[in-house]
Automatic annotation (TrEMBL):
Keyword annotations: Signal
Coiled-coil regions listed in the entry: none
InterPro entries: LpqE-like, Lxx211020-like, PCuAC_sf
Name the UniProt record assigns to this protein: Copper chaperone PCu(A)C
Cited Pfam families: PCuAC
Length: 181
């Protein structure tokens, strides 16, 4: 039951985001003032929209020098021609590879017109290889994406802040909720 609900929720979010990207030109969803800003870094390279770009949440403390850190983002091409994400660069890692879900190098990603491409956990995504410094949840780093047609775009992306704590009493500054309150 839980898997089915998760899959339904995921499909619903995907449909909502895709609809917003198409209907509103991906500038915003929701308010008339176009002030809504989805989480993660958002940018545009020519007709290619970049949304929710972020470094994956560190699993057990910060990403350490030498670690490989997953980098996730969504792409939507509003142009008339298919583009391709060729790669990326950053000063905080030896290299950035486009990899399959299992971590093997994949190479460029096609970005067809009017189709949402999700580069995320469990799918093709980018991987910052051999970090040269510590990156904690909440830290920001610069990453430059390179597209075949749209060119390059540099964006400041953050490392996701952990969203869960198994025992809140062990985390600095957090306390467990009081009974009945």
């Amino acid at each position: 039951m839980r898997k089915r609900l998760t899959a339904q929720w995921r499909r619903g979010v995907l449909l909502l985001v895709t609809g917003c990207l198409v209907a509103a030109g991906a500038a915003a969803c929701g308010d008339a003032g176009n002030e809504h800003n989805p989480p993660g870094a958002n940018a545009r390279a020519g007709p290619v929209l970049i949304r929710y770009a972020h470094i994956a949440e560190p699993p057990d403390g910060p990403w350490e020098p030498g670690d490989d850190a997953p980098f996730y983002l969504w792409l939507f091409n509003q142009g008339e021609d298919t583009d391709r994400l060729l790669g990326a660069e950053t000063t905080v890692a030896r290299s950035v590879d486009i990899v399959r879900a299992d971590g093997t190098v994949r190479g460029p990603v096609d970005v067809p017109t009017r189709k949402l491409i999700e580069l995320e956990k469990g799918r093709t995504h980018l991987l910052l290889r051999n970090l040269n410094r510590q990156i904690r949840g909440g830290d920001y780093v610069w990453v430059t994406l390179r597209f075949e047609r749209a060119g390059e775009v540099a964006l400041q992306v953050h490392s996701q802040v952990p969203t869960y704590v198994e025992d809140a009493t062990d985390a600095p500054g957090l306390t467990s909720p009081s009974p009945g309150g």
